[in-house]
Amino acid sequence: MTIPCVLSIAGSDSGGGAGIQADLKAFARSGVHGMTAITAITAQNTVEVRAVEAVSPGMIKAQIAAVADDLGVDAVKIGMLGSVATIEAVAEALGRLPAGTPIVLDPVMVAESGGRLLDVDAEESLRERIVPLVTVVTPNVAESRVLARAGEDVPLEEVARRIHALGPGAVIVTGGHREEASDLLFDGERFESIPGERHPGGAAHGSGCTHSATLAAQLAKGRSLMEAATAAREIAGAAVRDGLREVGAGAGPVNVLGLRS
Ligand SMILES: Nc1ncnc2c1ncn2[C@@H]1O[C@H](COP(=O)(O)OP(=O)(O)O)[C@@H](O)[C@H]1O
Ligand SMILES: Cc1ncc(COP(=O)(O)O)c(N)n1
């Protein structure tokens, strides 16, 4: 079998912890060939997002078409989209991929450091134009409540049901911000808890990106959704545990490749 080719449609993090930089490392960790369609460039470090510049819709579509026409796309991970114009471009490009291509959406809204990465007026487009097209959507708890328009009083199972009703194949609410750090999977029929140890002293900048990129890579390798979700939880958790705490003054970058000084 030839090596799977997986495409990340996401933003660039100049600090190297999240976005496409995290995705390429996660793809390598899972043994697939990584490709990128960059949606935005961020001037970002572990403390703040200083500036964001969108890539033009035409250039985003050209990147996706270039890799699809030659290398082929065995799975897609979508991260930061940023604006309505970018969402429209990505929705159009996804429609040209072969039916059945696994698509993982990490609905990135706000960076770990607090900077906004999705315009508020783009939340509705994300919900209507992208969420229904994807195989699995992987919000963290805060993102799940925005997608479901659910307040703190709504139980997480109901939040997942409401997101599923928007049309994706499945929902995984990631648990990095929950006390027990387990992920919650809902495929429209059953709930599965995907447990894992919490690493409170770890470095978590890029954990969501690492999780969704790993999920896409594992699906490209032919794993079932449950197998892929289990591997993504395990690999993201270990990347937080081994995270580079000493790098930067804020939340340090995850370390999915187990780098040591
Ligand atoms: N402190 C932690 N300890 C163990 N696993 C973690 C920790 N933080 C995040 N994870 C794991 O990393 C993945 C991403 O989670 P999360 O932090 O919820 O996403 P985001 O980075 O989008 O906020 C999930 O599988 C989650 O369980
Ligand atoms: C370009 C880009 N994409 C995604 C994230 C989210 O990652 P995190 O929530 O870990 O900051 C980010 N900070 N920057």
From TrEMBL:
Its EC number is 2.7.1.35. Residues 13-255 form the Pyridoxamine kinase/Phosphomethylpyrimidine kinase domain. GO terms for molecular function: ATP binding; hydroxymethylpyrimidine kinase activity; phosphomethylpyrimidine kinase activity; pyridoxal kinase activity. Pfam families: Phos_pyr_kin. Keywords: ATP-binding, Kinase, Nucleotide-binding, Thiamine biosynthesis, Transferase. It is an enzyme of class 2 (transferase). GO terms for cellular component: cytosol. GO terms for biological process: thiamine biosynthetic process. Pathway: Cofactor biosynthesis; thiamine diphosphate biosynthesis; 4-amino-2-methyl-5-diphosphomethylpyrimidine from 5-amino-1-(5-phospho-D-ribosyl)imidazole: step 3/3. SUPFAM superfamilies: Ribokinase-like. Catalyzes the phosphorylation of hydroxymethylpyrimidine phosphate (HMP-P) to HMP-PP, and of HMP to HMP-P. This is Pyridoxine kinase. It comes from Capillimicrobium parvum. The gene is pdxK.
